[in-house]
């Protein structure tokens, strides 16, 4: 069996990472012209290196046809052979390969399963079945087949094929357990040289494992050799954004967008990087993106945030209100809506938004901060004091909160508490809030005046 498996598996490129699945291609996904280059003489050369590789004449003839990419003839030969020898592992593997090459995936899987049953120690059958199942998205079924292949003897073509099995495992494990995926990748690298696809995967796994420095280094290794690598530029930009290295992130994201203009994710990240640097280009970029993707709520939310930062509270709140109509119990949207209402001096509307936010997210300090401010501005000092008390469980006091404490107690005519908090405010403000400091001093003159 070894001859056919090694020859057939190696006849197709060992190619690397495909879009979406990042799994090795099926024979049907490869140009068949590469098959025609494999001659019977080449096959015989490989066969001579494998002990016990003699095939029955019918199977050998079918393998010769496979080497010429004559799928129909090979299929007929193998069908006749398997009708008489239904448990011949080598013939079953060859039949699976022929079906795979013709994109008859269910037939191919059936033959590979029968080959595994006929010879449980067949590296090639486990590997081919695992790769096929992975390409079909049946990852839970694919994993045990690929794992089994890594524990079996692959024969003369061992290092390359076993490395392929480990790489496929790494791609499957990446979504569930980055640590396992890293181990899989390391096993592959013990058997074959690192490829650019390996480096990309290593970068993604490092990022998923919260190792931004390792991820950045891996992306930069790729870009040192290929400055226009879109995936590497996009990945590096994402890592740099997380580290708040916005100018560098901008450079990488622009490079990625040159190769994939209009990509919504990259455009959104670039807009975020620009907004973080207070660059005016961010707003029109997001507006264009929103026009192209009006139903994308993430884009809508980003546009609202940037408009708010740019000072357009009314425009920003139109988007927040639209989002809230679809998600009325989203505390984050309620907080953003409340903040927009405060900027427009609609304090009672803000009060209602923050009250609802604190009900939905009672441990969100921003919600309690907003409620305290809105309550103070709408003349609800008792509500403001309650909100400040809850907020203090999550965040330390600052000049702004001291001022709210002071004015709320002052409104309630609690002279002693108001005096205490006005003094706390003046100490914390230290000249940074001249209008409020003047007000505090004026109130202290009145409150501290002895009868």
What descriptive keywords fit this protein?
single chain; 451 residues; mainly alpha; Serine Threonine Protein Phosphatase 5, Tetratricopeptide repeat; 26 helices; 73% helix; disordered N terminus
Brief characterization of the structure:
This protein is 73% helix and 0% strand. It is mostly helical and 451 residues long.
Task: Lay out the secondary structure.
Blueprint: H1 2-11, H2 33-36, H3 40-48, H4 57-67, H5 71-84, H6 89-101, H7 105-118, H8 123-135, H9 139-150, H10 158-173, H11 178-191, H12 196-208, H13 212-225, H14 230-242, H15 246-259, H16 264-276, H17 282-292, H18 297-309, H19 313-326, H20 331-343, H21 347-360, H22 365-377, H23 381-391, H24 399-411, H25 415-429, H26 434-447
User: Uncertain runs with pLDDT below 50, 5 residues or more?
Assistant: 1-52
Do you know the CATH architecture of one domain?
A: Alpha Horseshoe
Shape: elongated
Summed up, the helix count is 26
Mean of the pLDDT scores?
Answer: 84
Looking at CATH, which topology of one domain would you report?
A: Serine Threonine Protein Phosphatase 5, Tetratricopeptide repeat
Beta strands, count: 0
Largest sheet: none
CATH class bucket of one domain: Mainly Alpha
- Beta-sheet strand percentage? under 5%
Helix/strand/pairing category: mainly alpha
CATH superfamily of one domain: Tetratricopeptide repeat domain
Rg from alpha-carbon coordinates = 33 Å
SSE order, as H and E?
Answer: HHHHHHHHHHHHHHHHHHHHHHHHHH
As a percent range, the share of helical residues equals over 70%
* Terminal-residue CA separation: 107 Å
